Amino acid sequence: MSVPPAAAPRAGLGDLLASDLRLHALTLRAALLLVPLSLAIAFGLLGTGPVAARNWLGELLGYDFSQVWLAGRNALQGEAAAAYDLPRHLANQEAAFGPEAGRFAWHYPPVFLLPAALSALLPYGPAFLLWSLASLTLFAAALGLATGRRDAVLIALAHPLVICNLAYGQNGLFTAALLTLGAALVDRRPVLAGMLFGLVAYKPQLAALAPFLLLTTGRWRALAACLGCLAGLCLVSVAAFGIAPWRAFAETLALTNRIVLREAWSGLDINASAFGALRLLGGTMAAAWACQVAASLLAVGIAWRVWAIGAAPPLRAAALLAAATLVSPYVPLYDLAPLVPASGLLAIEAHRRGGLLPRERALLIASPVAAACLRLVAGTTGLSLGFGLALATLGLVAARALPARGSERVADRCRPAPRACGAKIL
Predict the structure, then answer these.
(1) Which residues pair with 271 in a beta bridge?
(2) Contact 269, 375 (CB under 8 A)
(3) Mind listing the pLDDT tens digit for each residue in 229-266?
């Protein structure tokens, strides 16, 4: 029987929600088209141009990366604390890149001046391209190690959050890669895993959950390596740039709170946290903080429970990645990048256990669609799709990891392991 034309789209969506094979085939075909197109846009149209430090659209190459390179250049010139002097930092940005560039405040701890200074050893254009290529390579390598599947890596690279980070020169792919690698290696290589977690110190709001989980689940070697790496980074930054940047960083914490949370200089539509979601809807500061505390406690509790019961490694990794995006009151859209490996690992583990549930397939369909229009929807409707996406991802990981643990472990021991690249994952 033929399907009426008006019902065809619904029938097609129903097929995707009912079949892992159809969903996998569609996403793989889409990735084969979108990955080359996205990379051409990121590295071609947006990553190069006929004028130094400008792309082919006449815009600054990697708006967000510009202040990283500038802070690194100042550090190399013996003025590492300049980035924490807001008027001076804004004036330096305008002098280096033009009036439209003088709009970024520097909130990173001084350990981030180390990679910033390394990037500033190169001219701006090559530094931006190398930064983007390094982040993409590390992200792909982390996905490959964690999943063992080339198709999973390809599909992940087609996600809009990937090109978002590449286009703006942000560090979300570095964050997602380091957290993914740490979670994937925590049982096999605990010392290396702890060091990888420690390297996320440049984003303390996203890094804090990992050592908490190591502490509360008794992974002492990984925890010691994490804290040792953090201490080492701090000492190296002091040896390289002195104590002045640390003093300046401490003095700017109140300013950071005002700029980022109270006044939302970057816009309410860019903050995908629970705090940001409620503020976007017009909620008061008190209500937003209450919502954020509740979301943070929920995320930490779920992640701890998943780790404490000894859930399957892919689910433990997915819980950490998804929960990390929920614990901070400030989660700009590019920092949602950990949700990409989180949903992929959830899909792989679901397939291993017999197939995805309809709600899990719905998440895999909704994730790239929602990510492509996060800011548009937030600006026009006041709804934070980013916060909803993070909450849904963690919720589905918890639903897969927590119920019927004993029976699932027995079934897992009796079920033959699938080949690394044999069965379909979606």
Answers:
(1) 332
(2) yes
(3) 999 999 999 999 999 999 999 999 998 888 988 888 88
Q: Which two tokens stand for residue 320?
A: 């950490």
Q: Tokens 């590449």 identify what position?
A: 166
Amino acid letter for position 241: F
Q: Tokens in use for 238?
A: 């002091």
The Cα 375–Cα 385 span in angstroms is 9
Q: How far is CA 146 from the centre of its chain?
A: 15
Q: How many C-beta atoms surround the C-beta of residue 183 within 10 A? A: 29
Each residue's pLDDT tens digit, 97-139: 888 887 788 999 999 999 999 999 999 999 999 999 999 999 9
pLDDT over 70 (residue 396): yes
Give the domain ranges of the chain. Answer: 52-410
d(CA 107, CA 265): 13
User: Could you write out the DSSP letters of every residue in 120-185?
Assistant: TTS-HHHHHHHHHHHHHHHHHHHHHHHH--HHHHHHHHTSHHHHHHHHHT-SHHHHHHHHHHHHHH
